[in-house]
Structures are given as C-alpha cells and as structure tokens.
Specification:
Blueprint: E1 3-7, E2 10-12, E3 18-25, E4 32-39, E5 46-52, E6 57-59, E7 67-72, E8 77-82, E9 91-99, E10 104-107, E11 111-115
Parallel strand pairs: 2-11
Antiparallel strand pairs: 1-3, 3-8, 4-5, 4-9, 5-6, 7-8, 9-10, 9-11
Length: 117
C-alpha cells in the first residue's frame, strides 16, 4: 500500500511563491516517476511536472522557467517550487507516483493553490 500526502498549498498573491511537498509512504519501487498534476474547476486534469528515478524531468510549457521539481530519494519526497505565480495557476494540485515495473499509479488527495489579489 502506497500513500501520498501533499502539503504546502494555500492562498498567495500574484507574483508570489509556494513550495509544495509530497511524501510517499510504502514501497514505490526503484523504477518510478513522481510528479505533480493540477485540475481547475470545469477543466481537465493536466500535467505540471514529473521527475523520474533516473533524473529525467518534464515540465508543462505553461510553467517552464517558473516552477522547479525536485526529489529527495532518502525521504521518498517530491517538491514543487512555484515562483511568479499567476491567477491561472489556481487549481487543486495532486501528487502522483507511478511504479514503472508494476505499472501501478498512486494519487494523493490534493492540495489547493489559489492565486488571487
């Protein structure tokens, strides 16, 4: 059983910053991808950023240059540093891990990010 717990969301003004954390418990496998997705009301869930066990990183075009994903393998924790936040970044942010060997996906409960003045 794998559980993901997100933290760090909140209300921030445009141009501000937030740092999201996602801690995984249980075995996620040595070959895996961890990442962040977001979903705004009435919109489809979209990829924000991912980082794999081999270090490969992908970002959505809309967040390149503003967001940075990183991970601490000793803690099974992934982070998302969010800078220069815009109102359009407002969404429920979900943490996800994928075990590439078993092809099982695990999702967190989500943490709300609201960017508003």
């Amino acid at each position: 059983q794998v559980q993901l717990v997100e933290s760090g969301g909140g209300l921030v003004q445009p141009g501000g910053s937030l740092r999201l954390s996602c801690a995984a418990s249980g075995s996620i496998g040595s070959i895996n991808v961890m990442g962040w997705y977001r979903q705004a009301p009435g919109k489809q869930r979209e990829l924000v950023a991912t980082i794999s066990s081999d270090g490969s990183i992908n970002y959505a075009e809309s967040v390149k240059g503003r967001f940075t994903i990183s991970r601490d393998k000793t803690k099974n924790t992934v982070y998302l540093q969010m800078n220069s936040l815009k109102p359009e970044d407002t969404a429920l942010y979900y943490c996800k891990t994928s075990n590439l060997w078993t092809q099982y996906d695990y999702w967190g409960q989500g943490t709300q990010v609201t960017v508003s003045s």
